[in-house]
Amino acid sequence: MAAVTLSHSPRRAPARGPRARAVVAAAGWLVLLCAPPAHDAARAMDSRAPAAEYDLKAAFLFNFSRFVEWPPEAFADPSTPITIGILGNDPFGGNLDEIVSGEVVRNRRLVVRRFQDFAEVGECHILFISSSEAPALDRVFAALGNRSVLTVGESADFAARSGVVAFVLSHNRLRLRINLSAARAAHLTISSQLLRQAEIVGERSSKP
């Protein structure tokens, strides 16, 4: 089994560049803007090139920390950071590290960790499961059990196979697909602001 590669979480990246600031602002705007219908939001999430696609996906991983609530027991103590994990091949390069560097959400720092094998996934709150792990997806979910982890993936059937959030790229448009049943099984509360921008699968929440 390959060794786990820990993130550059303690490392301080240089001051955030214009592109990273723009990506974070764009993703935040898309989530916060509740009024337009989902198809309008999808048009705004136009992804013209692989680099732009993964810049935007990295920005969404950051923004998920703002629009998802974890139960208190998901954190060892009040100073425990929110950990964004990447399982498998890393498509983000240093962009995700740059986006989260210095950010604080609900009085918690954000850190990034990288895992090469699902058996090595330790404390993690948001876990991006790379498409390289698609053959092992069922084993990944079984290993995670009902841990309070927001699983995020890009496989075609990710949400249908109990992933919480799927990135769906179609005709150069990036959409979100959210499995509410999987979110509840993981004891996660997803903001209605985020749900409005997504296609919902699984049982719809009774809350507004």
Structural description of this entry:
Helix 1 (18-32) crosses helix 3 (50-67). This protein has seven helices and ten strands. The protein has 208 residues and is α/β, with parallel strands linked by helices.
Pattern of helices and strands: HHHEEHEEEHEEEHEHE
Average pLDDT: 79
* Spans of at least 5 consecutive residues with low confidence: 1-15, 32-49
Classify the secondary structure makeup into a structural class.
alpha/beta
Portion in helices: 25-40%
Key traits:
8-stranded mixed beta sheet, 208 residues, disordered N terminus, two-stranded antiparallel ribbon, 22% strand
Summarize the structure.
By secondary structure, the chain is an alpha/beta fold.
Give me the secondary-structure topology:
Elements: H1 18-32, H2 38-44, H3 50-67, E1 68-69, E2 82-87, H4 95-100, E3 104-105, E4 108-115, E5 126-129, H5 137-144, E6 150-153, E7 165-170, E8 173-179, H6 180-185, E9 189-190, H7 192-195, E10 198-201
Parallel strand pairs: 2-4, 2-5, 5-6, 6-7, 8-10
Antiparallel strand pairs: 1-9, 3-4, 7-8
